[in-house]
């Protein structure tokens, strides 16, 4: 239902745009403010009235953040998020295909997997803390990589299943008639067609892991420190280094802003677990 | 579902082998830990003193539900956040979607920009809040003072702080609701509206008699998704207020974290987390049932 051509006065359009631009300012200006803060000197941050534009574009806080906890945090976040996503993709994509094509486990298996995605993270954090402590795995990459499978495996299974559901089955059935094995039909025909959906799901899973905080807080200390944990420790520090906080926040935001642009069509589908196709 | 009706007697062994890895992973990383923590919830585990588990039966649950003066207030704060958060995000999101649906061009650029908050880590949103809400040099109160309003002490006032947490959530998730609603609006049949217009129905009548009822399934799914999500809110509280001032922002997930990682009472924390799991399961069951029926726009 898109009726731009309907009788609509110029005033109506102007008013719509005015409200939309105010909303846009409300939702975007805070991010711009933090971005600009990463270039400001400590003095400029503390000025009252606040200054919007920094006098000089000052990159030293990015350097300081990278040399401080930021560089390690960036690395740790990247390692944890990409490893967890890779493992989740490897185990989930065949499952998604099998559920989509063969209805393995009826609807119960699919729904069981979907419901796991909805667990409150605190319910996983407490037992995982006790278990990883028992096995001496607290504060390791593996602790977080494993912990993030709890939400990314169900997420990828469910979302990629939706993408397989959308694919026509004729090609695979033709291949089966021609004597391919089901595995060959999956790898040679269905998998390549589903690549866009698989990449989308993987990127969103990466984002969930990249943004995750509660499990990282429970399961890591000093050896491993992801960006959200690093950022929260800077904010809670004794001397608050605003420039570095801004720089670190930007490092955390930039990848997901790029994702927002690249994945725009699929974000809604991903974040509603496929309930809304968008 | 024409696919399901085709002859497909029973899945081949090969199909079962394909689901095996994911099912094994999920059993190992979710079901086993959940059983483990169910067991832990029947013990007193005070890691500050020792690693000994002392059997206490249902004591942890009884303590939470009847004896702990911090449990129900924390629960109540979470429920307040859920109620007002869902309500405000739904109203504002739907309004925003209606406006976005009216414009002829620039919609995809606007939507992409509006989705930035949705993609951000909640910790980054909260960090941003620390700066924006700062009463000495923060831009928000400066802006309000320019408008002749004296800004509140966003994070330091017992009567305000929980509302500030709510504001953070509304800021981050209203665009998400808006984009869902926009997807719903675009799928509505336009001939219905044209007919209504011929019959002389005004915009409000069209909204209440077509738009709202037709969007209802979508609205229900959105409410459930947001409710579950807001109930889990933790990151904003941890970064913005630490549960304070006093206990005014101590929501249930944060209180559970305190019992676990601050007081190291892991038996009790496990019981608390189970109570939350039960509550979320109710929402999840309704949502899963809806999605099973296959809601798609």
Q: Keyphrases for this structure?
A:
heterodimer; A: 278 residues; mainly alpha; MetI-like fold; 12 helices; 0% strand; globular; B: 297 residues; two-stranded antiparallel sheet; 71% helix
What would you note in describing this structure?
The complex is a heterodimer of chains A (278) and B (297). With 278 residues, chain A is mainly α. Chain A has a domain at 69-228 and 248-271: MetI-like fold (Orthogonal Bundle). Chain A has helices spanning 10-37, 42-46, 60-102, 106-116, 121-134, 141-166, 170-177, 182-211, 214-219, 227-235, 242-262, 264-271. The radius of gyration of chain A is 23 Å and the shape is globular. In chain A, 52% of the residues are buried. With 297 residues, chain B is mostly helical. Chain B has a single domain (70-292), classed as MetI-like fold, CATH 1.10.3720. Chain B contains 14 helices and 2 strands, in the order H-H-E-E-H-H-H-H-H-H-H-H-H-H-H-H. Chain B has a two-stranded antiparallel ribbon with strand order 1-2. In chain B, a hairpin with a 7-residue loop joins strand 1 (43-45) and strand 2. In chain B, helix 4 (71-102) crosses helix 13 (252-262), helix 9 packs across helix 11 and helix 13 runs antiparallel to helix 14 (266-292).
Task: Describe the structure in brief.
Helix content of chain A is 75%, strand content 0%. Chain B has 14 helices and two strands.
Q: What's the CATH class label of chain B?
A: Mainly Alpha
Order of helices and strands of chain A: HHHHHHHHHHHH
| Low-pLDDT segments of chain A | none
Q: What is the CATH level 1 assignment of one domain in chain A?
A: Mainly Alpha
N-end to C-end Cα span of chain A: 14 Å
In CATH, the topology of chain B is named MetI-like fold
For the record, the count of structural domains of chain B works out to 1
**What portion of residues of chain A is helical?**
over 70%
- Tell me the total number of β-strands of chain A: 0
Could you name the CATH homologous superfamily of one domain in chain A?
Answer: MetI-like
Percent in strands of chain A: under 5%
CATH superfamily heading of chain B: MetI-like
> What string gives the helices and strands of chain B in order?
HHEEHHHHHHHHHHHH
Report the helical percentage of chain B.
over 70%
Please count the beta strands of chain B (DSSP E, at least 2 residues each): 2
Q: How many H/I helices of chain A? A: 12
- Helix-strand category of chain A: mainly alpha
- State the CATH architecture of chain B: Orthogonal Bundle
| Biggest interface, CB < 8 A | A-B, 112 and 110 residues
